[in-house]
Amino acid sequence: MIYVAASIVTLAALLGIVMTLVTLPGIWAMIAVALGCQLWQPGLFSWWTLAIVVVLALLAELVELVASAAGSKRAGGTRAGAWGSIGGSLIGLVLGQILIPIPIIGALIGAVAGAGLGAIALERGVSKRTWGESTKAGGGAAAGRLLSVFIKTGFACVVGFMLVVDAFWS
User: What is the domain extent for residue 55?
Assistant: First the structure.
């Protein structure tokens, strides 16, 4: 049964990486499945491995949260633009997948475009910035969001790899 549990973890790791790429909580899904399998098959994982992947997941969340806001800020955006980039990214994720029904691509394009448009909207509407300043902040937010997706997907790959290796060889 231990190999069945390890195989379930492997499938969850692969699915979690794809989920992370489309800005869903794939790392947390991997960890949840791993913990469930650990309860089902005690000793499947080292507790050190589980602790490390939780720390990596928290770091990945921090990077994701800060990246689009930091991109907006770096491009001269205000706090309102940073919040707009975060909200716009979430709305864009959903709309992108609906409007561009290509798995992964639609969600990714939507999240990046939403981050930029959300930053522009709040820079212009709340902070009363010019169109030029708002657009510059929106571009920074979009670039930051795109970068954060790839960085977080890298974290997801590391977490998935650690879980699969520990499940099969611990």
Answer: 2-169
